[in-house]
Amino acid sequence: MFLRILKKDLKRKRTTNFILLLFIILASMFLASSVDNLIAVNGAIDHFLKLSKVPDFFAVALTDGKSDEIADFLEGQQWLSEYEIIDGFNLVNEDVTITECQADAGQTAYERSNTLFVGTIPSNFTKVYTNEGEALTLSPGEIAFPKVEADENNLQVGDKVSLRVGEEEQEFRIAAIVKDAVYGSSMMGFKRLFITQEDYAVFDKQKDLVRTRIYNMNFLDEEKARSEWSKQNFTVISAIDGPETIRMCYIMDMLIAAILIVVSICLILLAFLVLRFTIVFTLQEDYKEIGIMKAIGLRNVGIKGLYLVKYLALSVSGALIGLVFSVPFGKAILKRAIVNIVVERTQQNFVINMVCAAVIVGVVLLFCYVCIGKLKKISAMEAIRSGSDGERYKAKSRLRFWKRARMRPYFYLAINDIMSSVKRFGVLIVTFCLGMMLILLPLSAANTLKSDGIISEFSISPSDVYLDTGRGESYIVDMDGLFQDMEEIERTLAEHGIKAVTGTDMGYMIPCYSENPEECVSYYGLQAMGSWERHYSILSGREPEYANEVMITEITAKDMGVGIGDTIHFKMKDRTQDMIITGTYQSMINMGQGYRVSRSAKMDPEYAGGIMCVQVEIEGMESKEACEKLEEIFPDYKIMDAKGFLDSMIGGIIEQIDTLTYFIVAIVLVINSLITVLLMKTLMAKERGDIALLKSIGFADHAVKGWQTARVLLLLAASVVLGTLLSDLLAPYLIGPIFAMMGATSIQLVMGSAEVYVGYPLLLFAVTGITAALCAGGVKKVDLKEVNDIE
Amino acid sequence: MISSDVGTEKMHDWKRETGKGKHMNTLTVKDLCKTYIINKRQNNVLKNINMEIGQGEMVAVMGPSGSGKSTLLYTVSGMDHLTAGRVEFLGKDINTFNAAQMSDLRLNEMGFIFQQMYMLKNLSIYDNIILPAYQSENGKGKEQRKKINDRAKELMHKLGISEIAEHDINEVSGGQLQRACICRSLINRPKMIFADEPTGALNQQNSKEVMRELNRINAEGTTIMLVTHDMKVAAKSDRVLYIEDGSIKGEYVFGKYSGQEENREREKKLSVWLMEMGF
User: Which of A215, A603, A719, B22 has the fewest CB atoms within 10 Å around its CB?
Assistant: First the structure.
């Protein structure tokens, strides 16, 4: 008999059972994919660094190919376990020509946003992998591009590029887009292109060319190794402590991963909230029937058994379907979130998914058991008399209509319903609210990175125009060329009647220490240059004015154990320069480690590491107009406004967060719509009598629909407000620490924008409102005679 | 012949003669048929019903369970669709009305009272009463709503339920609740009230009170059509229609109810007539 009742129940309450099944599928899918992603993301970077074999220490230097003091030094050192030297060539924009581009047939000019290096496929250290996670292999005539460079130039697999090194020029077909553990992170300004040994040999035969050489080292005695290295004062472009520093370079990718973790937690919460709401609602519908079963003599155990079997059948089916969908869903989220890392996926991942699906079955049965459990306490007649939902009559009305002189009846009914059942609707408000937070939290990270103020966090003074001459690396060895270029820019502008000043920040990697010369560390320092007198934001103290003054970031101050007023020492080739710390600041360059010296400081040009751009400040002209003018005057230079410059530095990450946000928006819209359908269907099933009553006393269909729709939209409005307030409140604790790890210890997150307060709420309202209005169409089908169904 | 103190009966081909031509009918029903299809089987619930209810009249419909009384009430009031025939309300064929026009009609010209005291449980008694008025065209604006509030208070005062205005619906007796439903049905000054077993769920005392109010409302000029099982209720009407197997089998005309003293005699005559009809 139980099976017959169950079969009939599944058939009769098709809509409710289908909605319940749908939400079990969603819950199972969200939980399984989110837990799986949490685990995958958590160990992703360690896995990737191990997979690609990142050395303990590596340095990049320029060499003429004839003599190499670093190679000589490394030869036979006892503290080294192994080392490898990789040769390659640096490329400037003119060295790369796009010969075939599927996305843009007319495109030939190449624009790079990073220092570009071409070399062979590494076989020992710093191995690279394809987008699919496979080890890279190439045939002659093929080249592999890192993702950021390919994206920047609309390049994809199958496109062709021509490389010119010295007098040799070769054409290559792009065979792969690669993930490069050491140089592929968004924070690394050095990107590698890979070709075969045979193709490289063609370039390499030009012996008189300057090469870029990468020295990868693994240590036996780490302390001794560092001490010996720092004593040498080698002139290098960069020297980096292996895995730890590289891990920090993935902070931007980890920002995405952290957002993904927040998203996953929200999705899990959402899944459970929606499940609880659905089960309570569907069981409430059966309350009267349960009462009747009790009245005709069925025992509590039997009734519980009946419902547990029904929910077991639904939850097992739903969980299994959800389990199947969880794999592509999880992969889709991960693919959009983590683009630079090879994520490990094993058989264990699916076991995790299965455990999560089983948890969902357990939770559904637990909710069901708890909900039916309260039946024990009441008699059969009480269950029947108290109506279909098991509610006891008690004073409910919260708002008095007659006191609302202008409120329309449908609106009053909607608001009064919510006020009368705050607990029931509260669950929905929390659910919608979580959806809103899911959108706003990543958006706050993206908005902060996009904001005008963020430029100061990169230790740059904002200017009207940011100009890339394309000769960034050549200034390292030709600083006079830099000054000449800046003077030339000013002079040309003056000829066009534009009064302008130029400036730039030269980077240095000079070993420095506070007390013990043996404990030298190379931080990335900056020095302002050019005619433009400008100021930089500081956190405490003041900017350095004199040659022996320096300001350092708070993170560096903490690392070195120094503060304002202390002296640090810069160890250059032929001298040691003492500098007094005058202030502290924050910077998102090099994970917040660094310093800035005054314009008058005497820094050894041998330690120069290049410039980010030439800044141009123009008198009496807005940035947009200035950029347009300069584009006309300097067609060969890349002209950017603040946004464009930021985009060139961290554009990939902003784009990634944007993609993730859009994906989340789509998920939230689907969830909200499904919840709305569920809510409307269940409420309308429960309120058919009330709807019929309203229609019988003269309410037109549209007025009743208005009541039903307004209720959902009011819930959504409350959720949007609550979600926005909570996001504002919690963002500094959830997103702030991620920026702090990147060096911005005291950043002001940017929440307020039109898209936060208007765009997304409107989108949510529109989609949810349309869904609600469509569902409310069911009002038309309610027969007036159903007024007799009022309990 | 119809007189105020002597009942008359007519069988099958009944036709109202008294008053014909003197009053405009509030409701005219011609050849009304209502058929339900259940499990592919046709069920003729109402068969060629013809009737007229004059302005200010109070007509009771009686009959055994399943005879089609309630279906007749719901069909002539536009709450249910008819299968064939014509229903004119105030001279207009309501079958030609669309859903919005029917809503307007129910809101402004008709009032409904049900056996169960249906009210929205999230609203107070007072808010339930004023709800249809606030929904109507006259319910927009502060001044208009003030007038509605005055009328609601007046109605509640007349029906003796002023003290329960702010109560929730579970806090009052069945009789009070039914009187509140009557107030709601009257709030928009309808031309006609349709009542389906208005005393069916009430005890004797509450039934008497509710009928007293309905008679008073009728005396003030509101047309009433009510369905009842209760002879005492029907005896207070101007006219009783007896329906069986979907057809009107007879009509008993009392004339206006003028008070308690003649009640017993009306009940006795009705009882005899109903027995003859096989009730």
Answer: B22
The model's pLDDT over A637-664, given as tens digits with 9 standing for 90+, comes to 888 888 788 777 765 677 777 777 887 8
Where are the extended beta strands (E) located within A182-337?
Answer: 190-195, 211-219, 238-241
**B104 contacts in A (CB within 8 Å)?**
698, 700
Contacts of B66 (CB under 8 A, 6+ apart): none
Hey, how many other C-beta atoms are within 10 angstroms of the C-beta on A141? 15
Instruction: Write the single-letter amino acid at A558.
Output: K
Which among A110, A11, A438, A481 is positioned nearest to A259, based on CA atoms? A438
What span, in angstroms and rounded, lies between the C-alpha atoms of A247 and A241?
10
pLDDT, chain A, mean: 81
The C-alpha of B179 sits at a distance from chain A's nearest C-alpha, in angstroms, of 16
In A, minimum Cα distance to B142 occurs at A405
Q: Are A445 and A454 in contact (CB under 8 A)?
A: no
ipTM of this predicted structure: 0.82
Task: Please report, for chain A, the start and end positions of each structural domain, with discontinuous segments joined by +.
Answer: 1-54+251-393, 83-209, 395-454+648-791, 465-640
Tell me the count of A-B CB pairs closer than 8 A: 106
Indicate whether this model's pTM tops 0.80.
no
Full 3-state SS string of chain B:
CCCCCCCEEEECCCCCCCCCCCCCEEEEEEEEEEEEEECCEEEEEEEEEEEEEECCCEEEEECCCCCCHHHHHHHHCCCCCCCEEEEEECCEEHHHCCHHHHHHHHHHCEEEECCCCCCCCCCEHHHHHHHHHHHCHHHCCHHHHHHHHHHHHHHHHHCCCHHHCCCEHHHCCHHHHHHHHHHHHHCCCCCEEEEECCCCCCCHHHHHHHHHHHHHHHHCCCEEEEECCCHHHHCCCCEEEEEECCEEEEEEECCCCCCHHHHHHHHHHHHHHHHHHCC
**Are the CB atoms for A551 and A589 separated by under 8 Å?**
no
**Cα–Cα dist A511/A242, whole Å:** 17
Q: Do A784 and B114 touch (CB under 8 A)?
A: no
The answer to whether the beta carbons of residues B48 and B245 sit under 8 Å apart is no
pLDDT in tens, B30-65: 999 999 887 778 888 899 999 999 999 999 999 998
Q: How confident is the model at residue A257 (pLDDT cuts 50, 70, 90)?
A: low
Interface of B with A in 115-144 (CB under 8 A): 116, 118-124, 126-127, 130-132, 134-136, 139, 141-142
Residue A64 is encoded by which pair of tokens?
């003429």
Q: What are phi and psi of A566, to 5 degrees?
A: -75, 165
Contact B142 A790 (CB under 8 A): no
CA distance A288 to A297: 14
**Residue B253, CA distances (Å) to A653, B19, B64, B258 in order:** 88, 12, 19, 14
A232 touching chain B per CB within 8 A:
no
Phi, psi of B64, deg, nearest 5: -70, 165
pLDDT tens profile B119-169: 888 888 999 999 999 988 888 888 888 889 998 998 898 888 889 888 888
User: Is B135 close to A790, i.e. CB distance below 8 A?
Assistant: no
**Domains and their CATH numbers in chain B:** 1-100+194-279 (3.40.50.300), 110-189 (no CATH)
Could you tell me which of A484, A486, A477 has the C-alpha nearest to residue A609?
A477
- What is the dihedral sign for C-alpha A512, A516, A518, A519? negative
In angstroms, what CA-CA distances link A209 with A60, A66, A687?
16, 10, 83
Whether B135 contacts A694, CB under 8 Å: no
What's the per-residue H, E or C state across A604-621?
CHHHEEEECCEEEEECCC
